[in-house]
Write a structure and sequence with these properties.
The protein has 3 helices and 2 strands. It has a two-stranded parallel sheet. The protein is an alpha+beta fold and about 70 residues long.
Amino acid sequence: MLSAQNADQGLLVAWGGVNKPARREMRGQFFRVRVWDADDLIEAVFRNHHKLDTELQAQLPLKRVWTLVQE
């Protein structure tokens, strides 16, 4: 997978996650291949949206909303 693209590292986004055999296979390649599920991807978008180019922000319009948290 990585060698075919002549890459040193890769990111696999598996929207539904990965099964146990795939997770075991990836453990040995932690520093070469990272696996994100839907929650990881959404969190990364929320965390970095403000850093994106304005053209990309326009394609993915988000608005921050503040709410009170009841304790």
